[in-house]
Amino acid sequence: MVKAIFFDLFFTLIVPNYLEENNEYDVLKLSKEEWESYAENDVLYQERALGIVNDEVSIVKKILELMSYEATEEQITEIINRRNDRMKRALDTVDEEIIDTLRSLKSMEIKICLISNADCMDCKFWNQSPLSKFFDYAVFSCNVGMLKPESGIYNYALNRIGVKPEDSLFVGDGGSEELFGAKRVGMKTVFTEYLDKKEDKKGKELMLEADYYIDKFSDLLKII
Length: 224
What we know:
Distance between the termini: 8 Å
Number of domains: 2
Cofactor: Mg(2+)
Pfam families: Hydrolase
Keywords: Hydrolase, Magnesium, Metal-binding
Low-confidence stretches: none
Protein name: HAD-superfamily hydrolase, subfamily IA, variant 3
Oligomer: single chain
GO molecular function, one term: phosphatase activity
């Protein structure tokens, strides 16, 4: 019997989309692709998501260092504000089917927990999100110094809410090898493309790491 469900955050529950204008990269007159080539740098991402670089100003300054760009303090502040606005908007405007499904799971007295690779800016507005009221606990990598797919972050979450892996489901879009990590500790896995449809090859690869597949979020209730 499923006693607990663990969810990924990004592209499983929310999508932090950019606007048509007034995005953080517009401050520097860059394209989205140019900005993300620096902002998502692998080394910096690790430092951010592990909480090694753990404040907004330092994160933005680290990105600018990679670009060799001399920004003014006003530009740095504006980049932070626009990034925060984007994350807050994503956490505020949650798809209704996702909310309804979580509400149904809660009514079944199933424990619900978040396991997310995230930096301090990503999770800043979590407690203000309509999602947060459905969750018994939220594990953000920057707060615990562990990243998916490390076994430690799953075991930490399981211990926090007091369930065994064999009584648990992990639901995610498959990023960061999270489904593999969850299976390795003994959790059943659910691959979802509800918010993010993968290319055929990638989708097939992720199917191999999943016990179940859903392209409609409410279908999670059928698995339960």
